[in-house]
Specification:
Elements lengths: L1 H10 L5 H8 L3 H8 L8 H11 L4 H4 L4 H8 L4 H29 L13 H9 L2 E4 L5 E3 L5 E3 L9 E6 L1 E4 L2 E4 L1 E5 L2
Parallel strand pairs: 3-7
Antiparallel strand pairs: 1-5, 2-4, 4-7, 5-6
Amino acid sequence: MEAQLRQWMQAQGLTSWRSLAQQSGVSEQVIRRLRQEQGQTLTWRQLAAIAAVLQIEVVQLVEPKSSIQTAALIAPVSDRETFEQDALHRLEPWLLNWPRASWAAQQRPDLPAERLLPLLQPLEQLLKDWQVETLGAIGQEFAFDPSWQLLRNGQAEPGDRVVIWRPGYRWRDRLIQRAEVDPLP
């Protein structure tokens, strides 16, 4: 891996490990771990920063090199892969913290759930960036509109007051899921 890193650095005009660390905004220890083929221990953010400076794909830093893989690594990354990389990069804080928070909640049932809510911010921001809109909030009252609401039980005519039981979702101008509502007495 070290020889390959040197080739990529040379192609970008980088002459030292320190300059690679500085350009990518990571510590020299991170570069050392990468040189020792421990790329899988680095965070997505660290790998993405290094790959950006070297103008290569992140996968090239973590997968073992083989003659079969070399052709695939040189091939351009698909739009889907770029999309997935971006999504994983944005969700990394959640991926790193949610399992521990979930475990803690199971160990301590008295733990207030509101302390877990900040961990959902990366997911909420990603949905916002993707233009996913929540249709209503639990307990919110609306005039019944069957074009974006689904009546769970009972009867309601368009315009009757209903309360949101489960929010719906819209992506751009497409309805993903209707909001589930109950009629008000």
